[in-house]
Amino acid sequence: MRLRTIIVDDEAPARERLRRFLQRNDAVELVGEAEDGKAAVEMIEAGRPDLVLLDIQMPGLDGFGVIKALAEPPLIVFVTAYDEYAIQAFEANALDYLLKPFTAQRLDRAVDKALQEASRKAEFTARIDALLQTLNRQKRHLERVAVRNGATILVVPVADIEWIGADEGAVYIHTAGGHYQSNYTMEEFDARLNPRTFFRTHRATIVNLSRIKEIVPWFAGSYRVRLSSGVELDVSRDRVKGLRQIIDW
User: What percent helix, strand, coil does the chain show, rounded to 5?
Assistant: First the structure.
């Protein structure tokens, strides 16, 4: 079996190094390269590779954002400069990573491991899910979210999000430019967004605090927030106290 492989790295020398090393390995068929997260998502969805060598620290959409944007992630070997929090997460969930700078021999071992994992894809997918949960607990704040926009992938800076809402099991982010379905759950957004900027006003709603224009008394001790766009959203009674602590009124 040869692993159909894609390289994802924003640095051309890093891609060239990976390409050179992979060309020595008969177990790999290199089928594509991407230089940013958005292109990576589109290439992976279109090409359905067996293995992706995925850089983590990329401008725009980072490696973790790429994973979250994929409906069915392939086998992944993470490529990273020293990043202690990420390495601890990989090791805790038994996922392989390449620490820059790495040798051809180290890459070969990663490919061998991927070949073994290929027959246990369900187990690998479960470990990917566990990795994302570990990162959620570590409270690294989201900076960008990849969403579907027709046939393309749109990368949305979280600062552009006005509010997030759940509707019939789906989660949508709302911006001035439109609303888009996200692969994140409300709980994941709640854990990963900066609490200084976003507040969960209701089990089904998270708002960008900077977009709140007015707080309006509502029924039975509850309130509504009116955003600068004119949208009004409920604040459940059990969350009013928390909002008061952030916006003193």
Answer: 40, 35, 30
Is residue 231 within 8 Å of 162, Cβ to Cβ? yes
Which of the following CATH numbers is that of domain 144-246: 3.40.220.10, 2.60.120.380, 3.40.50.300, 2.40.50.1020? Answer: 2.40.50.1020
Evaluate whether 33 touches 49 at the Cβ level (below 8 Å). Answer: no
Please tell me the pTM assigned to this model.
Answer: 0.77
- The runs of H, that is alpha helices, within the chain are 12-22, 37-47, 63-69, 84-92, 104-117, 121-137, 186-192, 237-246
> How far is the C-alpha of 138 from the C-alpha of 109, rounded, in Å?
29
Residue 45 predicted with pLDDT over 70: yes
User: Which CATH number applies to 3-137?
Assistant: 3.40.50.2300
User: How far apart, in whole angstroms, are the C-alpha atoms of residue 230 and residue 223?
Assistant: 15
Sign of the torsion formed by the C-alpha atoms of 54, 59, 60 and 65: positive
Same fold across 3-137 and 144-246: no
Task: Give the pLDDT confidence of 75-97 residue by residue, as tens digits.
Answer: 999 998 766 666 776 776 768 88
Residue ranges per structural domain of the chain: 3-137, 144-246
Contact (Cβ atoms closer than 8 angstroms) between residue 78 and residue 56? yes
What's the token pair of residue 74?
Answer: 């392939």
HSE, CB side, 13 Å, CA atoms: give it for residue 223: 17
pLDDT digits (tens, 9 = 90+) for 162-199: 999 999 889 999 999 999 999 999 998 998 899 999 99
How are beta strands 51-55 and 3-8 bridged, if at all?
Answer: parallel
